[in-house]
């Protein structure tokens, strides 16, 4: 199979069928714009399983995604899209780069979800941008940005409820959208503990990639626990 693209944690392959790609989840973990790197055996399989369950749930709730089906341990069949170079972030509680940038301790609950956009560019370390910047850079139209914001807030509500049932608190997350050849926006990429901050609802234990970023203990044990709880 021809590889179309290789990212830090995934590869995308062409299939025999026009309009369908395969996403392969790798065991690689990176943080701080690729400065910290490690192979974590089993991570790809867990993220594929978790992402697949989440895409299935979101599809059932009326969200349009690139997901078609999980085809084996590390691979997912998806609809062909062009990924917008935008990281779309929602924050329900303070953590991570927001805490650092605004001098807020972690774990403060916001009255409303905070919506952020970052420009996906490794050489610029993914700077935070506003709607106007996204438009002048030609990343998305004004109408698309509004649509993305509305859809992402809806996804936040669905994810919060979904994770709450698994005794997990959704602190924040990053998603990406893709455009089909017909110009339709679909939720793409992945939704996993690599891209969501998830804290145990009772103990506040971190069950996500911060374990890797901050050396807080086994990544695999936490991701496995997340999978067991959402199954
Ligand atoms: O680091 P920061 O606090 O900005 O991250 C916000 C959310 O976006 C976190 O859930 C993090 O896992 C996710 N994120 C991501 N990929 C990036 C940057 C952030 O999945 N490149």
UniProtKB/TrEMBL annotation:
<dbReference type="InterPro" id="IPR000014">
    <property type="entry name" value="PAS"/>
</dbReference>
<keyword id="KW-0436">Ligase</keyword>
<feature type="domain" description="PAS">
    <location>
        <begin position="1"/>
        <end position="61"/>
    </location>
</feature>
<comment type="similarity">
    <text>Belongs to the SAICAR synthetase family.</text>
</comment>
<keyword id="KW-0067">ATP-binding</keyword>
<keyword id="KW-0658">Purine biosynthesis</keyword>
<protein>
    <recommendedName>
        <fullName>Phosphoribosylaminoimidazole-succinocarboxamide synthase</fullName>
        <ecNumber>6.3.2.6</ecNumber>
    </recommendedName>
</protein>
<dbReference type="InterPro" id="IPR050089">
    <property type="entry name" value="SAICAR_synthetase"/>
</dbReference>
<dbReference type="InterPro" id="IPR018236">
    <property type="entry name" value="SAICAR_synthetase_CS"/>
</dbReference>
<comment type="pathway">
    <text>Purine metabolism; IMP biosynthesis via de novo pathway; 5-amino-1-(5-phospho-D-ribosyl)imidazole-4-carboxamide from 5-amino-1-(5-phospho-D-ribosyl)imidazole-4-carboxylate: step 1/2.</text>
</comment>
<dbReference type="GO" id="GO:0004639">
    <property type="term" value="F:phosphoribosylaminoimidazolesuccinocarboxamide synthase activity"/>
</dbReference>
<dbReference type="InterPro" id="IPR033934">
    <property type="entry name" value="SAICAR_synt_PurC"/>
</dbReference>
<dbReference type="Pfam" id="PF01259">
    <property type="entry name" value="SAICAR_synt"/>
</dbReference>
<dbReference type="InterPro" id="IPR028923">
    <property type="entry name" value="SAICAR_synt/ADE2_N"/>
</dbReference>
<keyword id="KW-0547">Nucleotide-binding</keyword>
<dbReference type="InterPro" id="IPR001636">
    <property type="entry name" value="SAICAR_synth"/>
</dbReference>
